[in-house]
Design a protein that fits this description.
alpha/beta; six-stranded mixed β-sheet; 14 helices; 12 strands; single chain; flat
Length: 366
Amino acid sequence: MGFRCGIVGLPNVGKSTLFNALTETQAAQAANYPFCTIEPNVGQVAVPDDRLDRLAAISGSAKIIPTQLGFVDIAGLVKGASKGEGLGNQFLGNIREVDAIVHVLRCFEDDDVQHVANTVDPIADAEVVETELMLSDLDSLEKRVPAAQKRATGGDKEAKALASVLGQALDLLRQGKPARLTQPKDDEEAQLFAQAQLLTAKPVLYVCNVAEEDAASGNALSAKVFEKAQAEGAQAVVVSAAIEAELVGMDAGEREEYLASLGLEETGLTRVIRAGYELLDLQTFFTVGPKEARAWTFHKGAKAPQAAGEIHTDFERGFIRAETIAFDDYVTLGGESGAREAGRLRQEGKEYLVQDGDVLHFKFNV
């Protein structure tokens, strides 16, 4: 499944540079002026996971297929975007289509790179974007909630649930708070709330774009962003887009040596993925065999049939059971045969909660 993140932020904070580096392409035009990104660029990135390589080595898999992560580079938002300023609401529509928001904030000083406000203040920048998203949601809900309330008075049960959950979101927005703080009272409200696709309901990952010398430990500006994220229950990571751009084109040995020289143990991409997985409660299971070793992404708490559905809907519809081996058992016992002989290959049914790292083989009948 993977997930799809929309990269947002003010113009010239390093969004397109980061996108280019993360996807190892030059699909997005990185230029030092506002609105250089006119149409959203979409890139797919392989999710790094050394467990997959270990499983493939043990099983002698001919191919290794990691799960994919999607990044959407969305043009820079400016104050007034919700009312059509800058390039307007088309970009808010692009944000509506993603699972999470990666909010890039400028946390570096550079006189050669202009800032739209002529000052470097990541908290103020974040508030500009957040305000536009809230205003867009507010405008939407001030039309939708009264309509739902009117239908609810006529006995429409779904409209009553919709009016309840969206009314709560509207109250939050009027207080200057994001819709993600809404607390649906049951599964029906939760589903209706998700279907509303509110911009401020999406989880947020703040990416602090710092200079190369601050990549290992951050700086005073990024520290303020981390405080903000903690207060909101969001995630934050420190990344140097300049370093990530340098890594493009290097082989594995060169990357490792370059990162070590900067006091870094991993790339910014790895940190972004880890934070994103945690933010969205995502985990990974594996399918392993002589033809291929493959990683699959699923939501934490998924049962075996739901996980099977990530491979194919037929697997979920005709699910019978899942042959399951924990990752540690697979590695320690030398693969499927060893796990079977040791009694560590389990037969799990429809109620089994899939665990991160499980090696699964599904039995199904359609």
